[in-house]
Amino acid sequence: MATTLILSSDDALSRLRQSIHAKSGNFYAMYSSILGGIVTDPALMVLPLDDHMVHRGHAVFDTATLTHGMLYQLDPHLDRFLRSAELARIPLPFPRERLRQIILETAAASGHVEGSVRYWLSAGPGGYGLGPAECIGSSFYVIVFSPASSRRTISPMC
What we know:
By secondary structure, the chain is of the alpha+beta class. It has helices at about 10-20, 50-55, 75-85, 95-110; strands at about 25-30, 35-40, 60-65, 70, 115-120, 140-145. The protein has a domain at about 45-140: Aminotransferase class 4, branched-chain amino acid transferase, N-terminal domain (D-amino Acid Aminotransferase, Chain A, domain 1, 2-Layer Sandwich). It has 4 helices and 6 strands.
């Protein structure tokens, strides 16, 4: 007799919400090109298991600092990110200016003026093979969060 539950969509969403851990209170907003928008519920800050970022590591990322409501040096960070994407042979899902706009809008949706903004470009979902040819298109993710390191003191080692 089977003991593993087969969950309905409603049950799965309910369990995702129940599984939120204490540190997820530091996750403020996430954009997903898969969803086509921004979510602020940490239970929805997920990505597809068949995304090549998950099982192949075929992705690039960068992090910008959100300080006083401004993204510090966003343009140089974004330029470096785009160079990395080119080297990793990951096509952009949107032009540079749209990626920038999404990052800014996700930061604004967070409602926070201090934190970190991390963004990823992945080869995308589409299967579990070795190469990106099966991917249906690249995916872009952005998250605004408060890093744990900003809440603790690090002692120098001598």
